[in-house]
């Protein structure tokens, strides 16, 4: 055996072993025309361009021309990938089959001698589809050009330049940047390509270079690595026996025996069990702990490391993914993983099964991570997605209602955070109601006749209620708001007045409104607690749809301590009247005909009066949105300049920030953007 450790006078200083794993060994590329070859030695990257036989009967000419058109466009340029206006070549790029080549070598046997040469790298040549990326970039550029043409006229003379100073970079941030994908891509792009000339297997230059695989020196003394005495070879093959110490078997580092587990503090025992099991009923947890363990103490510990889902305990995300760690699959930071897993757990608090595609489309994480989240707490079911792993533990919920209530409050807080991050609402995942039947047009005289008959039937009941209200009022009693029962009856009285949908005239409650005092002819205000909530909410958000207001109101009720909820069972109409009585108006936004917004999402309310001069700006904005579903900033600026005065940039920014949301250069009232 001759070790070819140093090759003198060699033109090629690195030896690479290349293979084509996507093609059988019998189908070589020896007879294919090689157009170009290049290499990046430090990265061990090789690229080869090979010609495609466009005259072959197996070649689809129309498809080749379409690919060239997508990649290069219609114009001719020196940088075009396909100069012949058809895909007449393909590129092969290398990937490293292994990073450690110290165990491999190229060997040639000649005249009873085995000549061994170390390998620099082992590469696999695979087809490169970078031309598809170029085609995508061309498409994006064309779309961006088409969208940007409209705005060029307006902003031609207005340019500002902001100078920003980079903050000092911490060592931790620098390490994250170095490990990031963009940084690695940039470092790889910095090494220049070295262009090579390809020589075939049977080429004379190839035969000449192949001679360097044979060791030039026949003196075996230079190859001391492979020259040993017979005794040394025998000792290597059969090493002498040594006395071995008896060592107790050691299990994996993440495994503890029950005896070892019970030596830990109670909190660590619970944390270790939950971290390994992921999801567990409370009864099973108590069974794994030592007999006589106080269940109250265990409840305190479990709430620090787990959350209640369907009566079962699921380990918290930050326990599985501690701070400053990342995903073993994709390298995603722990903070992002925790948000995605919390969303999956929250979905299981609403229903038994979830769909993997629906979850992945919202949390936007790699499929491996999404699958890991689901495998922790669920099992796949045919045609039903992923079903929660354990049945709902109703016994625990009944036995510990205070714990269940506290956990529900925690989930409401988590839901609020998730809604801000992933931009959704709980109603998006609630089962859709049955489609409403088409409205039936009834003649006016028939409506009047039905109303008269119903009034005659209910006259005695109404007179009794009116008498009771008058007596209460004379006695100084408080006026209560009647709660509207939820009814599916189809014979509900039709509102024939020319008023808003909520029974109010000109934006304020009328006689048909539940908050109208029929005994005195005046409006009886809603509960003070409700008025206070409406006032605070609209001074914070300024514009809300009825759907969003109801969501915030439910969160407010849920955050109140148990037993202290003073506002209950309010109908939609009472909520709307309460809004209108607190200096707000309904804005009749003209939604498009094909809108998917629910009726509650189409009822938009805005704060009308705060006592500030800025109220005029809001009213002009509301007026614009009563005629337009969406507007441009320039349209609002022109309206304000025409009606009031030229607005400052600060006023424009404040107005849009308080009342609107932006998408694709257009401005919408809050809550009215349709996905």
TrEMBL record:
It comes from the Eukaryota. GO terms for cellular component: RNA polymerase III complex. GO terms for biological process: tRNA transcription by RNA polymerase III. Pfam families: RPC5, RPC5_C. Residues 431-675 form the DNA-directed RNA polymerase III subunit RPC5 C-terminal domain. This is DNA-directed RNA polymerase III subunit RPC5 C-terminal domain-containing protein. It comes from Sphaeramia orbicularis. The lineage of its organism: Eukaryota, Metazoa, Chordata, Craniata, Vertebrata.
